[in-house]
Design goal:
Blueprint: E1 3-5, H1 7-17, H2 30-40, E2 43-44, H3 54-62, H4 68-77, E3 81-85, E4 89-93, H5 97-116, H6 123-137, H7 161-171, E5 175-181, E6 184-189, H8 196-200, H9 205-220, E7 222-223, H10 225-232, H11 237-247, E8 251-256, E9 265-270, H12 273-278, E10 287-289, H13 300-307, E11 328-333, E12 336-346, E13 351-359, H14 367-384, E14 388-391, E15 396-399
Parallel strand pairs: 1-8, 13-14, 13-15
Antiparallel strand pairs: 2-4, 3-4, 5-6, 7-9, 8-9, 10-11, 11-12, 12-13
């Protein structure tokens, strides 16, 4: 028997699972912030600071009372979250750390094979040297190890060898990010950063696979095995397929209607998913600016199927070939992605400048929608600390 989920219900369920249906003004304390991150699974970190860094904006989009110092508190002081890798650098609940140990094992093998191709003589000794120095001297940053700051190495991103060794130790779990100085990582031994119960806990490989697949499906609601594997990027597609087969009748085939298509997407889901989707509440009616790295946009193909919204980050696209802009923010209105906005926080003089606005086809810039946009831009202005909001000439570009 195949369950069917309509497109509108699928969108609302997906948004609810990703925290975008919750009351955006609810007071947020440390426990609530950790719960939000755990609900999302992880929050991607990105260095681009056009308006605000991605991790802060992702959290603010869900709760307008969130402030940047709160994440530092639960990370640096409470140690309820840690930094490591999913698809990219991310903030991850510390309770997940025992499962990440299996990820560290896989990454250790993968990265050793990679750096063997370009390593310099003595690189393994350098790894040991840096680990031992942190163990004896305490927390350190990359700049504390650079022997020759005028010459870069031949490692990842052309880093100097010491930076590459630090990255290897971090990615494989031997050291962890204790805190950040500005945006620069301060490292210490993982055993001195991760709460002891989580650091010492062990789970079997099968328990790890079961957890990774279940946790992914819980946050996706409905998914193919490829989407389940890709959510955390912890297990392989083959492991996700074997896991799904082992669930037997606990999972059902589910047809999810796509935007603008008569063809449904066949997924796996738990029993009762159609009823759960039908009962999913509508998100708040306000207009919200989303980070380009927001969880609902991570899988671009899924976003396009559910919302009919094609989105690409054009940071690495030459300016003359960009369709929209360097770093353009999607706009969420209730359960629809209705447009995108290009803006920049000019910190030198306190300006939040709106460069361009594009609405999706058939979306009008009505008086009510304009008012909602101005309200959201005022919220973003306060969040970033910008002193004033301004608009470039010709900023309303019409439909995308």
């Amino acid at each position: 028997m195949t369950a069917t989920i309509g497109n509108k219900e699928a969108r609302r369920l997906f948004l609810q699972l990703h925290g975008l249906s919750d009351a955006p003004r609810k007071a947020l304390n440390g426990d609530g912030l950790v719960d939000m991150i755990e609900q999302l699974g992880f929050v991607q970190i990105d260095s681009i600071n056009t308006v605000e860094r991605a991790h802060h904006q992702i959290l603010f989009s869900r709760n307008q009372t969130y402030r940047q110092k709160q994440l530092a508190h639960v990370h640096h002081k409470r140690q309820d979250v840690f930094e490591n890798w999913t698809h990219d650098a991310a903030v991850i609940p510390s309770v997940f750390y025992p499962y990440w140990k299996h990820h560290f094992t896989r990454v250790r093998k993968k990265l050793r094979e990679r750096w063997r191709k370009w390593r310099r003589e003595g690189f393994e000794d350098l790894i040991d040297e840096i680990r031992d120095k942190i163990a004896s001297d305490g927390p350190a940053m990359s700049r504390d190890f650079a022997r020759d700051k005028t010459t870069k190495g031949d490692g990842w991103w052309d880093w100097h060898p010491e930076k590459t060794a630090l990255e290897y130790l971090w990615r494989t779990g031997e050291i962890a990010v204790l805190r950040r100085d500005g945006f620069q990582k301060v490292y210490d031994l993982s055993e001195r950063v991760i709460p002891q119960p989580h650091f010492h806990a062990e789970v079997s490989r099968q328990v790890f696979i079961d957890w990774a697949c279940n946790a992914a499906l819980d946050r996706l609601g409905f998914a193919t095995t490829g989407e389940i594997a890709a959510f955390f990027d912890l297990v392989s597609p083959a492991e996700a397929r074997h896991w799904a087969q082992a669930q037997g009748k606990d999972l059902i085939e589910t047809a999810v209607e796509c935007t603008g298509s008569d063809k449904a997407r066949l997924c796996l889901a738990r029993h009762g998913i159609a009823d759960i989707a039908r009962s999913a509440p509508p998100p708040p009616s306000r207009l919200r600016v989303l980070s380009p790295f927001d969880p609902i946009l991570r899988d671009r193909a899924r976003t396009e199927r559910l919302f009919g919204f094609r989105y690409r980050i054009e940071v690495f696209v030459p300016q003359s070939k960009r369709e929209f802009g360097y770093y353009v923010f999607p706009l969420l209105e209730q359960d629809r992605l209705v447009g995108r906005i290009d803006m920049k926080h000019n910190r030198s003089d306190g300006r939040l400048t709106v460069k361009s606005l594009w609405l999706e086809p058939k979306i009008r810039f009505s008086g009510g929608r304009e008012q909602n946009l101005m309200s959201e831009l005022s919220r973003v202005q306060r969040f970033t600390g910008a002193e004033r909001l301004e608009f470039a000439d010709g900023w309303q570009r019409g439909s995308g």
